[in-house]
Amino acid sequence: MFLALKEMARAKVRFALLIAAIALLVFLILFQQSLQNGLITGFIGAIRDQNAPVLVYSVDGQRVLQGSVITPEMEAQVRSAPGVGEVGPIGQGTFTGSPSGNDDGETFDTTIIGYELGPDGDGIGAPSTVVDGRLPMADDEAVVSDADVQLGYGIGDTVTLLPGGKQITVVGVALDVQLNVSPTLFVSYDTYLDAIASVNPDAGAPLPNVLGVVPADGVSDEEVVESINAQSLELDALTRDDAAAETPGVAQVQQSFNIIFLLYGLVVPCVTGLFFLIITFQKANSLTLLRAIGAPAGRLVSSLLIQVGIIICAGLLLGTLLYYPVSQQTLGGLALRFETGAVIFWSVLLLTLGLASSLVAARRVLRIDPIEATTGQGVGT
Amino acid sequence: MKLALTELRRRPGRFATATVILSLIAVLLMFLGGLLDGLIANSTGAIRAQQADVIVYSDTAQASFVRSRIEPDVRATVEAVPGVTEVGGLGNVQLGGRVPGNGPRDLASVVLFGYEIAPDGVPEPPPAGQAYADDTLEADGVEVGMTILLGPARSPIEVVGFVSDTNFAGQSGMWASVDTWRTVLSENRPDAQLAEGVFQALVVRGDTSDDTSLTDAIDAATDGATDSYTIDEAISAIPGVESQTTTFNQIIGVTLVIALVVIALFFALLTVERTSLYGVLKALGAKSSTIFAGLVVQAVVVTAIAATFAGALVVVLDLLIPPGSIPLLVTPSRVISSVVLLLASAVIGCAFSLRRVLRIDPASAIGTTS
């Protein structure tokens, strides 16, 4: 231990550079983990965190809320499918919204999701977790996503849709219910219809984009999905989780980030392993001498592993400290979050991989023959 | 310098691990860049292809086609603006396309454009019911002469040819006359249909070299009823383009810093290891600059090998990734710029060893062994 720390104290720059490299890598990995999660939540949170267990799209919609159109015939087929309990229409559109709470008078792409209000506003398609205020209980009221409050969509604020000037009042805030990474309002279905009419006088009567379905008692979500899809090749029923995961773009985002994580994850043990291998080569003669005067191989290896542990832990700590302030930011409308689970996962993984990569150097140390001290040879030869 | 190259040739194993690490970092850089290029190209092709100076949306549209409405009287005002030479209507609708031979649930993602001024690489508008398709649709089995059924109304559109790099919002572009577009729009999206003469946007050509003054002139002439953009501005205004570019470039920047630190670390360690050898070389008359140049040469060669290997790997990856999955676009310019940035990082990283080389005292060669 003493030897390990003494050596690090005497070669500060070398070890500091390694810590810096690991810290930057850890920072990038964690930042991108937050970016990935924030992107997916902002992209499909409104689907994942609404209360309809099953969503029915039209096949033409290709699992995009706004792209799907449910005709009256399709709706009748869904309602008559075995195992279907309750059915509610859900409509979605993107508008230009001007929130009164925005001091700079900015306008934003604003998603409006309309659903039929039930008692206390809790109809099929309502946000699952209201964290402040209440659900809409009348027309022209809305619940917003928590990420939108800072843009001026706070409780009591009004959102004016442009053009047309229709106004909607924010009455509640729900957790993680953004869609398409834009401010999202959950409103009554009639409010949604009014919003479309207000911005486009040429518009015909819009049909629901999707249907929210609650299975009958004793029927599972999967069973009702199967039952609805068997009704027609035009219907595309999905459980809530599948609808979120299979929204176009989500799988690509995850695949892309997985490749990036794999590459960054590989660089950390490679850099650590290379560093300690070179250091071991450089110390070859000293290590041989230490072995010759009686230092057990185990102590030298433990000294090496202590250094590896300290370096990686310092890198992890520094990287996490760099990541913390960044994780509190909003990036282009994307709310980042400190991912404690990711910090723990990557810390354990990188520490394990780092220690494993140093085993090559440890093997070199174990192969030292003390007799070589008399010949001037070391592990480096 | 010869000595540095000889060492590289005779003891390649010493540099192998560093080369592997740099290769990984180079793959990361090129993959990240390729991902950014793929995302942007897939989202902006249709706008980049416009052979115009300005795109005009309605004032509250936030540069969104779907939310924009340009009435005929506004168009007339734009046409009368001094400096405007030609104005064309433009609109689009995003739909699923049923391709003959594909499964009933296997639809192609299509964005049908109606245009009056032909974009770059797209011929003049075809007759009603026909369209030019972006060649990315070939991956969905689309062929020339095939009739694709668009949207829930199954609007038939015959493909009369292929064009390139005209996708929009991640969907494959199809280019038709404005009448075809208007028909398909009203058949499939009654809530978004537009009356005769109304367009989602206008593309404008002007005779002035300053596109920004033209956008200002148009918006002033329409009394703020329009929101005009130069082509570059319109590309940046597409949702996600600017934030994606900024975020990816920041990640690429930090990755470059990591490459720099790794190179600095590796060559600092090499320099420490060779201190006594450099002492001997200096004692024999070698200059510090010569020794440092040797280090730089080694760093550049190692980085170049790593970058070449990474470039090849990313190209192979690009070929292996099936169309429609990861939006990776590997371009020569991206590979070259990544290589140049890595080489610059290598030289800067190496500079960390300069101080150590300068500090070596030739006298230390006396009485030391390597």
Topology overview:
The complex is a heterodimer of chains A (381) and B (370).
Chain A: H1 2-10, H2 12-48, E1 54-58, H3 72-80, E2 84-99, E3 108-115, E4 130-133, E5 141-145, E6 158-162, E7 167-174, E8 184-188, H4 189-199, E9 210-215, H5 221-229, E10 235-239, H6 240-245, H7 250-282, H8 284-292, H9 297-327, E11 330-331, E12 334-335, H10 340-357, H11 359-366
Parallel strand pairs in A: 3-8, 5-7
Antiparallel strand pairs in A: 1-9, 1-10, 2-3, 2-6, 2-9, 4-7, 5-8, 6-7, 11-12
Chain B: H1 2-10, H2 12-48, E1 54-58, H3 72-79, E2 84-98, E3 107-115, E4 130-134, E5 147-150, E6 155-163, E7 172-176, H4 178-188, E8 201-206, H5 211-221, E9 226-230, H6 231-237, H7 241-273, H8 275-283, H9 288-320, H10 332-351, H11 354-359
Parallel strand pairs in B: 3-7, 4-6
Antiparallel strand pairs in B: 1-8, 1-9, 2-3, 2-5, 2-8, 4-7, 5-6
Helix pairs in contact in B: 1-9, 2-7, 2-9, 2-10, 7-10, 9-10
Task: Write a concise keyword list for the protein shown above.
heterodimer, A: 381 residues, alpha+beta, six-stranded mixed β-barrel, two-stranded antiparallel ribbon, B: 370 residues, six-stranded mixed barrel, 17% strand, elongated
Structure description:
The complex is a heterodimer of chains A (381) and B (370). Chain A is 47% helix and 19% strand. Chain A is an alpha+beta fold. Chain A has two domains: 2-44 and 250-374, no CATH class; 45-240, no CATH class. In chain A, the strands form two sheets. In chain A, strands 2-3-8-5-7-6 form a six-stranded mixed β-barrel. In chain A, helix 2 packs antiparallel against helix 7 and helix 7 runs parallel beside helix 10 (340-357). The radius of gyration of chain A is 29 Å and the shape is elongated. Chain B has 370 residues and is an alpha+beta fold. Chain B folds into two domains: 2-44 and 241-365, no CATH class; 54-207, no CATH class. Chain B is built from eleven helices and nine strands. Chain B has a six-stranded mixed barrel with strand order 2-3-7-4-6-5. At the A-B interface, helix 2, strand 2 and helix 7 of A face helix 2, strand 2 and helix 7 of B.
